C-alpha cells in the first residue's frame, strides 16, 4: 500500500476521519519539522554612566559613573519534550542595563534560552550563500547546551577616564553590540530503542504504557507526525529511552512521502523494536511480509542498520485472526536469533513483560563491544 492509498483509506475510516484525517494527511508534509533555520541576536551591552559625587553646598566631586551591564547571551539547550516545530524563526536576548551613580554597575541582560530536543545538531548557517557551515554542537544528552551568541560588553563609566589633566570627564562608553548569526538546526532523535512499524501498528500505545511519554494515540493512521521519546524505568532502577518514530511504508528508502525524513531518526537509535500489527486490514500485507518490507527499507537506506540488535512485538493480539498470524510468524523465527512475544494494547501485564524484555535487551547491548 502506498502513502496515497493509505491516505485515501484514512479519509474513509474512523469517527473523525472525514474532517480531521484529510487535513492531517495533507498537512503532514508541511508541518513536520526536523530541520530549521533560525536567527539569533545577543543583547547589546549597557552604556556607561556619566555621574559625579555630589553633595549639598559642595562643588562637583570626582566622577563615579558605573559601568554598563553585559548583554544577555543566546543559549541552546537540549530538553526532553521540546520540539523544533515550536521554535520561532528569530530569537533575541535582552540588553544590559546602563551603569548608575556612585560606581554602580548595570545589571546583565537576561539570556535567551532556546530549548531543543536531545539529539539536535547545531550548525552555523551562511545566509548569503545559503549554505550550511561547520557544526557547532551535537546536543545528544538532556541538559547539554551551547552559547551560540555572546552578549556585548558593558560600556565603561566616566570614572575610568579621569586623568590628572581632566579630573571631571564627561565622556563614557556605549555598550558593545551582541553577536548576531544564523543557525541551522537538525534533529536526529536519540534513543536506546526505536519503535519501527507501519502507521497504526500500535507503537504509540506501547510507548505510552511502558514509559512516561504521552504520544498522541488514535485508531487511524498518521497519528504520529513527530518522534516522541519516553523514559522507561527498569527493575534495577536504571533507565532506558524508547522513541516512537513516525510510521514507515514501502518506498520510504526511495523518499516516498516523508521516507527519508523518518528514516534519518532511526540511524541514532542503538536497538530496534519492530511493532507488528497481527490483525492487518485485508489490503495490507501479513505480519511477516510487513517485517520483511521494513527490514528491506532500512537496508536500502543504510545497510549498517541491519547490524543493530532488534526484537519483535506482536501487537493487537486481542483482534480477529491475530493468533493465527502469530503462529505463522513463530514458524519464521528460526530465520533470526531474536525473540518475539505477543502484546495487547490495553493489557498492562503483557506490556510489562515487554518492558522486562527491553531491560534484558539493553543489558545485552552493553555487553557487546
UniProtKB/TrEMBL annotation:
Instruction: Enumerate the residue ranges of region (Disordered).
Output: 43-71, 87-113, 157-178, 328-369
PANTHER family in the record:
DEVELOPMENTALLY REGULATED GTP-BINDING PROTEIN-RELATED, MITOCHONDRIAL RIBOSOME-ASSOCIATED GTPASE 2
Organism equals Planoprotostelium fungivorum
OBG-type G domain location, by residue?
Answer: 191-369
Record-annotated Obg domain positions: 30-190
State the family named in the UniProt similarity comment for this chain: Belongs to the TRAFAC class OBG-HflX-like GTPase superfamily. OBG GTPase family.
Task: Could you list this entry's UniProt keywords, alphabetically sorted.
Answer: GTP-binding, Nucleotide-binding
The beginning of the lineage is:
Eukaryota, Amoebozoa, Evosea, Variosea, Cavosteliida
Q: State if GTP-binding is listed as a keyword.
A: yes
Know the name of this protein? GTPase
Per the record, the domain of life is Eukaryota
Q: Which GO terms describe its molecular function?
A: GTP binding; GTPase activity; magnesium ion binding
